[in-house]
Amino acid sequence: MNDSLKKVAVPEIIANANVHFCGTVYSNHAQFVIINNELFLDFYLIEPAKPEYTGTPAATLVSRIAVPIGMAKGIATGLANAIDRSEKSLKIKIPNQRGKHPGDSIEIWKED
Q1: CB atoms within 10 A of CB 72
Q2: pLDDT tens profile 88-111
């Protein structure tokens, strides 16, 4: 390990963080793209068709998050583990609404 690198106490940094909270948003659809080693994750709210709006469903982009690709992999691993722990503690099986895509190269949750 490089002696010039200082270990960082992340919990202490988080405890003393400046808060710039933009509010909580609800999303029922997400899309992502990776560009130049960064993951852009867009969250949408898709609402049912409204006759006054031509009768077609409407989508609204409610939030966008951009993170380095290495952090994205850590987030994906953390989310998978958190969901697994919740399923086990609640003794339930949460359905995967995404379904399998032809281009998938890994499988996080195996179908029962």
Answers
A1: 19
A2: 999 998 888 777 788 888 877 766
